[in-house]
User: Fold Oxidoreductase from Streptomyces rubellomurinus.
Amino acid sequence: MTSPTDIGAALQQDGGAGGTPEPVGLGSSPLRSDALPKALGIYPYAADLWAEGLLWGAVLRSPHPHARIRGIDTSAALALPGVHAVVTAADLPPGPDGTPDGAPSGPIVADRPVLAVGVVRHHGEPVAAVAADHPDTARLAVGLITVDYEPLEAVTDPEQAFTAPALHPDGNLFRHLPLRTGDPDAVGEVVVEGLYQVGRQDPAPLGAEAGLAVPRPDGGVELHLSSTDPHGDRDRTAACLGLEPDRVRLVATGVPGATTDREDLSFQVTLALLALRTGRPVKMTLTREESFHTHTSRHPALLRYRHHADAEGVLVKVEAQILLDGGAYADVSAEALASATAFSVGPYNCPNVFVDAWAVRTNNPPAGRMRGEGALQACFAYEAQLDQLAARVGVDPVEIRRRNAMATGDPLPTGQAVTCPAPVKALLDAVAAEPLPALPVDDPDAEWLLPGGPGGAGDPAAVRRGIGYAVGMVHMLGAEGEDEVSTATVRVSGDHATVICAAVDAGQGFATLARQIVQTVLGVSEVYIAPADSDQSVAGPSGRGRHTWVSGGAIERAALMVRHQLLQPIAANFGMSVELLQIADGKITSYDGVLGMPVAEALEGKELWATAQCRPHPTEPLDDAGQGDAFVSISFCAMRAVVDVDIELGAVRVVEMAVAQDVGRALNPRQIEDRIEAGVAQGVGLALLEDLRTAGGVLLNPSLTGYRLPTALDTPEVRIAALLEERDVVATFGAKAVSAVPAVVAPAAVAAAVRAATGLPVGRLPIRPEDAVTA
Assistant:
């Protein structure tokens, strides 16, 4: 049977239905390798998997945000016909003192139990799990488990976490990060202040979490999951189960949408535990409500800012307090806080910066990785401050940003010099120069374009247009000393090549890029990307542009080593060095034109392979004053938002988003534009719609009917004003990450446009109708 990857590759070679081969190699925009199987509905996801003797898993979750567990009675569930196992924290390896501790784990701090023991700390926390011969039986059995809860007072206000009783043995403070640079006594002639609030945004993946666990004869387990980090998930799963890592294998299946870590670890460990306990394959497919309870969301934030500037609007000092609500467990709160703190001033120069930032524990749902974690919350606040400052000094929003814009070589408030390209002024100028869209009131046939649609906009005379600008930044790769490394193998046999790399394509198109890299280096058009699993060498997690840089770099290096193996005997035959030969358009040619040989002919009868690693330059943790070279590189983006606001009803329609972004090098222009559009859509969602609401720590809207996502009619036209290609000399191919920074900037730009239309301060996200009503 032809695999989905093979189908995509075949379509690419045939040029689709038209029969004309598409361009290949870096800089072109070939069809994505997974496009056809996804369009045909035959792309394999974890929810599609099956195994002989399959059992179904289900999880019992806490109805309380905070409660003591006084006892668990599983007898009724075990007595139900068709039930094969019920597991609790007592079935996991015990803690260091020999008593159950729930096998806690986490990406940075191991504080989150797989199954709650003694206490539950958030609504929906896993308490027990069942394996049965039918999914309905498993869910029925879950309902028969009796848990004796003693409800405890829930701490849901992050400001109360400082004085509340400890919710966990590790305390309520995940991290306090002060940043101090410059003169604390500096003052400006103009001072503006603001209080800003960012709500809880959920990644709301297209497909809910699902997976299959298969026990192995050696006592280990094989997991088939939509993981974005096969080795990290394998190692943490093995540790939680008390197994050696080589007895756990994780196979990455198709990822149905991922803008964050794909699954909470408790999901896969529980799945594996059920398979080991029953000795049979176990599958688990979550409902949408369970999905909201399982994965982490964006950190809600409270930010207080004071900007000092001179009479011309040039920044003198920035003071800020940033508070992130990390929820019940640490996850990556410390990492998100570092980003929020380091980028608290944004892509602007300021000699004096004084910030105090905290991430705290509450009984709210856990927060974790999501595009631009930390940077987004800060961007919303500092851009609102600059709009205030522009109004106070009497200049337009673009000019105030140009006067303070960072450039290459300028320092961050952390003391780190920005050595990568930082074309902030050029990005601003590009979006400002774009023509504005037409007003819908000028077109009698365009009533549906008004806020609220036909008949929903009230009086068209109440519609006001607003134009807002924002600029933002994100760091690429890991930060603060995180070791970034990836390994790849490239094998060439005959007229085709195979890439073996554990880098998961989570929807960002990395498999297509990997194919383009090999096509460029080796001139081989047929390239197969092997499925990712933990038996391969480490490639690390998806996100923050890592795989383009680190895994792409490893693939390029391996391909270059194969290229040398291919060209060396040819060069020797002609008495020249390898450097005097080149591969282009499927041919090997010499500098003098004497040699012209098809690559396929040179490869005939040969099998060549090489393995290589890529590891970017190291970083360091921020010190007690928030100083240090914490980031490998930074990506920048500027946006102009155009909105129409019904000032009587508070309805907002985003008409257009103009985007200018520094991409370093456009390796695949079509994919870059697609990813920018996706980031803008996610940012617009947070700006106007997306809010995972809680009351007393209990989720109120864990469904796709209650949690509002932007539809096609809510998503604006995205105008790409510029893709600036100033290569980052330390990055692989000179390219920068592209998807996170549009999501960071879009909410701030939309909020700025709503302010311009209404004259109201707009200090919270998402923007509610009452925030945009002036009449």
User: Anything to note?
Assistant: The longest helix spans residues 546-573. The longest strand covers residues 463-479.
